[in-house]
Amino acid sequence: MKRYAVLLSVIVSLLFIWGCDSVDGDGVVKLDGPILEKTVYGKGVSEFSGYVVNTGNTAVNSVYVVVVLKDDKGNIIREASTSIFREGSNTPLNPSERQPFALLVESEPGEVFTKEAEVYYEDIANNSPVR
């Protein structure tokens, strides 16, 4: 059952990533500084935290940070995503504005070989998803 849940989350994430593959507009949201990782709640859970910043000329909304953990063969072990805004918020990320993020990911340290993080957002001016 757990295997099917992981497979389903990978498929949903890939569909989300493919849907966000156009780069239109002036909004550019990037990771700002390092992503910190710390183990919490004992063994098997890591918290990733950091900041994103809008370096573009227009406001953006629906900003998500996605963290993907891979094994030594490049296979996805775990993934997690979080919005930088509270659920239901219509607040945009304005130009030059910074926002923090934090998310928890279940993982066993011995099986994680690489960690990747990406930012996805929607450009308000063009109402199109961007990666």
Explained architecture:
It is a single chain. With 131 residues, the chain is mainly beta. The protein has 1 helix and 8 strands. Strands 1, 2, 3 and 6 form a 4-stranded antiparallel sheet that branches. Strand 4 and strand 5 form a beta hairpin. The longest helix has 18 residues. It starts with a helix and ends with a strand. The N terminus is likely disordered.
Q: Please tell me what the overall shape is.
A: elongated
Question: Could you state the order of secondary-structure elements as H and E?
Answer: HEEEEEEEE
- Overall pLDDT score: 76
Number of helices: 1
Radius of gyration: 15 Å
What portion of residues belong to β-strands? 35-45%
Low-pLDDT stretches are 3-25
Helix coverage percent: 10-25%
**Largest sheet geometry:** 4 strands, antiparallel
First-last Cα distance: 31 Å
| Structural category | mainly beta
- The count of strands amounts to 8
Give a short summary of the structure.
Helix content is 14%, strand content 44%. It has one helix at 2-19; strands at residues 29-31, 36-39, 45-54, 60-70, 76-83, 98-106, 114-123, 128-130. The radius of gyration is 15 Å and the shape is elongated.
